[in-house]
Amino acid sequence: MCAMAWGAVLAGALVAGLPATAAGAVAGAVKGADVSRGTITSSPAHTGRAEARVWTTGFGERYFQIYGRLYDSDPHRGHCASVQAVFHYRKGDMERSPSRGLCSSSGGRYVGFLFESRGRITRVDLRVCVTKGREGPAAHCATKTIRA
Fold first, then answer.
1. Which range of residues forms the domain containing residue 76?
2. What does the DSSP assignment read for the chain?
3. N or C: which end of the chain has fewer CB within 10 A?
4. Residue range 106-130, pLDDT digits in tens
């Protein structure tokens, strides 16, 4: 553990000691690895809403990841938020991820989610919905398509 801490200090010192252009390139490579895709909010046709803050890895990666936080802002007891990804692969196949849900009435502010493809994709559709109960039917959905 101590060796890891010293390694982090050494790495920080090396980056700090680099010329400005090299330090900027290193910082840009680390910072640019994942992309913020903003917030997706369920349909406004309902008084409550589900909301997801979304980040993705690059499309050039072998396994594409989409991850973030799911929030349930629905005041109705028994209404929950859910998020699901649909991956569209380069060879034409399609795969639905298992959905991830949250019910704020059970005390949680947010829940993290992570969906990963099984290969290279051309696009992913992320669907955010209000559901009746944790496993109930989805309603008031919004879908955001993220393309390569």
1. 34-147
2. -HHHHHHHHHHHHHHHHS-HHHHHHHHHHHHTTSEEEEEEE--TTSSS-EEEEEEE--TTSSS-EEEEEEEE---STTEEEEEEEEEEETTS-EEEPPPEEE-GGGT-SEEEEEEE-SS-EEEEEEEEEEEESSSS-EEEEEEEEEE-
3. N
4. 667 899 999 999 999 999 999 999 9
63 and 47 within one domain: yes
Over residues 44-80, the pLDDT tens digits come to 776 778 999 999 998 878 889 999 999 988 777 788 8
CA-wise closest residue to 52 among 120, 124, 3: 124
Contact assessment for residue 51 and residue 129, using Cβ atoms and an 8 Å cutoff: no
For the record, the structure tokens of 49 come out as 């809403």
Q: Alpha-carbon distance 16 to 84, whole Å?
A: 41
Same domain? 10 vs 55:
no
Burial of 37 (0-12, 13-18, 19+ CB in 10 A): middle
pTM of the model: 0.72
Same domain for 135 and 85: yes
